[in-house]
Amino acid sequence: MILSHIVAVSENNAIGVKNGLPWSIPEDLKFFKKKTLNSVIIMGRKTYESIGRPLPQRTTIVISKSARVGSYPEGVFVAPSIEEAIAKAILVAEQQNQEEVFIVGGGEIYRQSIDFVDKVYLTRVHTQVEADAYYPELSLEKFKLVAENPSKDNQYTYTFYEFDKKV
User: Fold this and answer.
1) Residue 85, SS3?
2) Which of the two ends of the chain, N or C, has the fewest CB atoms closer than 10 A to its terminal CB?
3) Do the beta carbons of residue 82 and residue 36 sit within 8 Å?
4) What is d(CA 106, CA 84) in angstroms, rounded to the nearest whole number?
5) Which residues, other chains included, contact 52 with Cβ-Cβ below 8 Å and sequence gap of 6+?
6) Cβ atoms within 10 A of the Cβ of 101, count?
7) Each residue of 117-135: pLDDT tens digit?
8) Nearest Cα residue to 121 out of 53, 48, 33
9) For the ranges 64-73, 125-134, 138-147, which has the lowest average pLDDT?
10) Which residues contact 91 (CB under 8 A, 6 or more apart)?
11) What is the DSSP pairing of strand 59-63 with strand 40-44?
12) Mapping DSSP to helix (H, G, I), strand (E, B) and coil, where does residue 14 land?
């Protein structure tokens, strides 16, 4: 089973501000959707609340220590820790014959799981932004760059990167 981060970050590793994205990049959202469709995704409670609903055609696992029974829609699983969320995600993914599980945020969940992931899909938005959520520094001693695809739209220049964990 491949465990992956998928994230868009600024040059200063910002990923979110006030429970939202600091930018709107349609091509990145399409990339996210294409990668995660029909997969199991793991996210923190704040990320789930910022989205406001389960994402269609994905199995959602929310990490929350304080979730009450019935506080999430049917089909959304809740786990109290990153370790339990990953274990549940792997079990569900295997039952659905999937090969990859995605961790989709937020900052604290990325930090807690960075040592567990095999792959990182990182969209680097070439700008600096003020934020309140950040992605941890990606160690090039632990990860190697395997793909790079620069792009731009009317507002932003960005690069899609793919990193694999070094063995």
Assistant:
1) helix
2) C
3) no
4) 17
5) none
6) 26
7) 999 999 999 999 999 999 9
8) 33
9) 64-73
10) none
11) parallel
12) strand
Pairing of strands 133-134, 14-16: antiparallel
Distance in Å from the first CA to the final CA of the chain: 15
**Phi-psi category of 75—alpha, beta or left, where left has phi over 0 and alpha has psi -120 to 50?**
left
User: Which of 102, 167, 111, 104 is CA-nearest to residue 137?
Assistant: 111
User: Cis link prior to 70 (omega < 30° from 0)?
Assistant: no
Instruction: Give residue 16's region: left, alpha or beta (phi > 0; psi -120 to 50).
Output: beta
Q: For the chain, how many residues are written?
A: 167
What is the per-residue pLDDT for 93? 97
Q: How far is CA 52 from the centre of its chain?
A: 16
In whole angstroms, give the CA distance from residue 8 to residue 16: 9
| Whether the Cβ atoms of residue 74 and residue 47 lie closer than 8 Å to each other | no
With 0-12 / 13-18 / 19 or more C-beta atoms within 10 angstroms meaning exposed / middle / buried, residue 141 is exposed
C-alpha to C-alpha distance for 30 and 25, rounded to whole angstroms: 9
Beta strands in 11-156 (DSSP E): 14-16, 40-44, 59-63, 76-79, 100-103, 119-125, 133-134, 143-152
- The amino acid present at 90, given as its one-letter code, is I
HSE-up (13 A, CA, CB side) for residue 113:
30
